[in-house]
Amino acid sequence: MIGERIKSLREQKGYSITKLADLAGVSKSYLSYIERNVQNNPSLQVLAKIAFHLDTNIEFLLGEELAPKVWVDEVLDEEWHTIIRDAVDEGMSKGDFRALKELVRSNKWREEHGGRRDYRDIEGKKKSNIIILHIDH
User: Fold this and answer.
1) What is the Cα–Cα distance from 58 to 66, expressed in whole angstroms?
2) Full-prediction pTM beyond 0.70?
3) 4-41 pLDDT per residue, tens
4) Same domain as 132, residue 80
5) CATH code where residue 46 lies
6) What cellular-component terms does GO give this entry (predicted)?
7) Domain that holds residue 113
8) pLDDT at 126
9) Which residue has the higher pLDDT, 59 or 131?
């Protein structure tokens, strides 16, 4: 399974086995063994090097059902670029973006694990559960 995923991603990127081996700093024969499942227990260090150059993560190579990383230009259209530029112009830092990302990830996890709360104001109207953070550096 690991070998099949590596080979598939390598081919999607248009890399030869030699090219990926050179980029990842592993021998061509060792990478070939991995792809053909002759070597089915490569070290995490080797997998990390390979995953990096295939724009994915170790978890995906090991068979977790996580999608590989996508190229930024495939996801971020002009509206996203404008939103990000505006946020930066207004003083939002990388740390602020990371904190906001962790907040969203935490909320998604809570929703998936049954911990969702339905916040309501005094009149009983549903309120948003988004929290805006301001981090001073």
Assistant:
1) 10
2) no
3) 999 999 999 899 999 999 999 999 999 999 999 898 78
4) yes
5) 1.10.260.40
6) cytosol
7) 72-137
8) 57
9) 59
Helices 17-24 & 28-35 angle (0-180, nearest 10):
110
Question: Do both 86 and 42 map to the same domain?
Answer: no
Is 40 in contact with 2 (CB distance < 8 Å)?
Answer: yes
CB 60 within 8 A of CB 66: yes
Asked whether residue 57 falls in the same domain as residue 84, the answer is: no
Q: Is pLDDT of 62 > 90?
A: no
Q: Clarify whether residues 62 and 97 are in a common domain.
A: no
Rounded distance, CA 1 to CA 17, Å?
17
Distance CA 123, CA 101 (A): 31
Q: Is a pLDDT exceeding 50 seen at residue 116?
A: no
